[in-house]
Every structure is written in C-alpha cells, then in structure tokens.
C-alpha cells in the first residue's frame, strides 16, 4: 500500500549490483518499495569515472534517512556505520555487532551440500574455500565437515593461502590443481561460491579429472549465469537472497517509524539444491539405484509407489531396499516423500497456486495430509512457509 502524501524516505544503497548476490538483494528491496513506497533511492554509478567518490563523501552529499550497505573496502565504512540512522549491513569479512547484519545460515548451507553429495552416492568429501579471509567460508566449511563426520567420513579441506585469492590464474591455481590431483576417486567437493566452483571445474579439466565421474562439484548461490554456462553445468545450494532484500527494506521501514530496537540480524536460509550434471551420480552410483532415482525425479509431480520402482528395475523389493539404502543413506519411501515435498515447496514459492491447487496437481489425497507431512519436514505449514520465504 503506497503513501503518496508523506515525504518519501531517502535510502542510500551502497551495493554495486555487479554480482548475482547483490542483484537479487536489490530486486528484493525494490519489491518492498514498490509495494509500500514510494522510496527515494541513492546509488553510486561506479562505472563512471567522475562518480568514483568515497562512500563517506557520498553519504555526506545524499544525507539519507537510512542505508543498506554491502561491504567492499572495510575501512571506508568505519565512519559511516556509526551514523545515527537505520543501517543494514551485508558483511563479507566479519559481521558487525553494532548494526543489523544480513547473514546467510552458512552452517545449514554446508550441511545441505554434504547431504546432497551423500544421497548421490559420494562417500569421499572435500571442501574448497577461502577460510582465512571470509567468515561465511569458514562457517560453510564447518557445516559441511560436521555433516560429513555424521556420515562417518572426514572431509579434505583446501584453503587459499593467507593473502592469496585463488579465483584467478595465478600461483594459487597451481596449488589448487595439486590438491585436486591428490583427492581419491569419486570425491564430492563443496566449493564456497559458484564463482569458485567454476574455477575448481577448470582446474579439474586442466589435470584431466572428469566431472562428475571422478570429482563431483557443488557451489553456493545458484547464479545461473555461472552454473549453466560451465563446461559441466554446476549444481548449487539455492539461497533466498531476494527475500532477504525484502526483509532488509521492511526492517528499515519499521525502524524509521519508531525508536530503533537493538540490532537484529536478517538470516538467509538455504532453500534447497539446484541439481545439475556436476553432481550427477549416474557414473559412480549403483546403476540400479541411479535408474530408480531417475524414475522418481521424472515423475516427481505424480504419486509414486515403491512397487512402481520395483517394476522398473526388475529386482525383488528387499534387494532394491538394501541397495537403495546403501547408496543414498535413505529408504526409498523417505527419498520419494522428501523429493516430492521439496518440489511442493518450490511450487509454493515460484507460483501463485493455492495449497489446494498444488496438492491436486501433485496427486496428494488431501490438503490436510500434505500439510501434516510438510510441517513435519520443514517445521512450518505450507502457508507459513510461503509467507516466510516467498519474495
């Protein structure tokens, strides 16, 4: 609902908008402003040389009522972050205790990546990140390693040497290739971002290790411009960044209306896995299990019985149960239920269909039954999940 009579709040956006994360964040902010504005935004046009002014001078010029900031060069922000206006901060090196931060639930992201690799049949685990520089890389590594440990496995970890970023063809790339060459066959690697996952794939190509036959790769962020254009399309953990932008704008609006409460962080949860060929286990997994999974995923929008899969693979039910459990760590019935609920959740967020319409489309017997299953799996009813995560 817009307010055409009040003076629009002036909001400074110190986000470049060059990367997928920032573009999604800006899109979420715009969604909120379009619904509840109007707002007046100030942004720096960074590619114009005459506009390359320090953030402090920009803020002095703009005199905004609030700011949403993405950390780039930390020392620029030490002064402006102390200003007595509502501030939302998206950190890269470390969160700040004196402002509201936008933070990914990085440990949950790492755990979800490890689970995906395990369910696809990979039993060797590795993490590739920049833990010395970025808190989110360390946390993703921790979540990944903890989940691998829960599966009874230790994870190999590559960390860019202090002061070196390996996202380039420099001497760090040689060290990355050496690390990849030493990994055992059929290793599943989580890489801290999609951009870095692309570099890991390039390093695998350079040393002759096939993806995903020898090395499976999963990144974070689901930047389709990176993932889809890779030589082998990259799987990725999806993040609800657009919703975080919306929530950041709402937080600003709430604080402009009343006395600011203590800083409250905005948490970005993982939404699921965007699975692509880089973690496809067809070449490494039990071929019978691979056939069963392919059948399940092709018919994910329809009710599936275990007997349907038994007919497809021509094995006894007991033999299929044992082989499926050994390969994925799950029973067939649990696997079917979880994948269908994940598809249900995507339809909640990506369409305007009602819960009843989605239930009917997917062949569930009743809204009540699917709502009960959904709440058990996600901890929220379908409508509460949509309200919390839809952008």
Describe this structure in words.
By secondary structure, this protein is α/β, with parallel strands linked by helices. The protein folds into three domains: 10-103 and 241-268, 3-Layer(aba) Sandwich (Rossmann fold); 106-239 and 273-279, Rossmann fold (3-Layer(aba) Sandwich), CATH 3.40.50; 287-389, Arc Repressor Mutant, subunit A. The chain has helices spanning 20-36, 55-62, 77-80, 106-119, 135-150, 171-182, 194-207, 224-227, 241-257, 287-298, 306-313, 317-328, 332-350, 355-361, 367-378, 382-389; strands at residues 10-14, 40-43, 66-70, 87-90, 100-104, 124-129, 155-159, 187-191, 215-220, 235-239, 266-268, 270-274. The strands form two sheets. The protein has a six-stranded parallel sheet with strand order 2-1-3-4-5-11, sandwiched between helices. A six-stranded mixed sheet has the order 7-6-8-9-10-12, sandwiched between helices. Strand 6 (124-129), helix 5 and strand 7 (155-159) form a beta-alpha-beta unit. Helix 1 packs across helix 9, helix 4 (106-119) crosses helix 5 (135-150) and helix 10 (287-298) crosses helix 11 (306-313). Residues 290-388 form the HTH araC/xylS-type domain. One of its GO terms (molecular function) is transcription cis-regulatory region binding. This is DNA-binding transcriptional regulator.
CATH topology of the largest domain: Rossmann fold
How far is the N terminus from the C terminus? 16 Å
Q: How many helical stretches?
A: 16
- Sheet with the most strands, sense and barrel status: 6 strands, parallel
